[in-house]
Amino acid sequence: MAIGNASFVSEFILVGLTDNPDLQLLLFFLFLAMYTVTVFGNLGLVTLIGLNSHLHTPMYFFLLNLSFIDLCYSSVFTPKMLVDFISRKNIISFISCMIQLYFFCFFGISECYVLTSMAYDRYVAICNPLLYNIAMSPKVCVNLIFGSYLMAFSSAVAHMGNMLRLTFCDANTINHYFCDILPVFQLSCMSTFANKLVVFIVAGINITVPTLTIFISYGFIICSICRIHSTEGKSKAFSTCSSHIMAVSLFFGSGSFMYLNPSSARSTTEGKTSSVFYTNVLPMINPLIYSLRNKDVILAMKKSLKRGMF
Prior knowledge:
Blueprint: H1 3-6, E1 11-14, H2 21-51, H3 58-85, E2 91-93, H4 94-127, H5 132-135, H6 138-164, E3 173-174, H7 181-185, H8 193-226, H9 231-259, H10 268-292, H11 295-307
Parallel strand pairs: 1-3
Antiparallel strand pairs: 1-2
């Protein structure tokens, strides 16, 4: 179906986070600072892993991809968001809105499965350390990342096709700061029941399957750790998982709140707040979680600074 035939609306107006001019200026500088930290944090982590050969392991290969995804994910919304804070009328074309929605889905779902791959990596490292080099060979790692991006591509295409079948007649004001799925649905002049059902199913699969996989992996991990006799050994095993557990809890918690709750039970303000958390805050704090709590990354950073690579 051609885009021109799918809609009578050629552009949308984004309401944004607030219509208070003074608050908008404050938010502009706040989100600019957050985006700066996000870019330098994730780009720095990608560069650090790429330049230090002792970080060329499966765990850091997945972390490199996670940082790349977070960098791209935040860039889908934040630059447009910053422009809108200082613009009089926040307009986005229909095509740009659909592109933004596609990449929002693609990078968000990619992160779900990369976090799942990282959980599997920790499971093999702790529960089957003697088979680690075989079970987590370069080919396996590449296949896991390829599968993550393939699932994201398929789901994003499903959401995009789901959106393009709708007709938008007169209403063109999106009560959000970006083209999120549910707020755009509200503007359609045809029934969106089937669309919301597809969103619930796709979101359910992409949240439930990774979550169950992660829970099962950590169930085996906890059992293995409990069999370790030394306190130091247990502490070391838990420390290798703590950063990942924190990132998983924050990401899947906010995603479940946003897409698995009935829309009637969630106010617009709550929806925007939750969106800010997983589109702006999480991509900023993920590199901090994995760098400040990781001795290998800190050591690599010190070595790189001594060599003058940063």
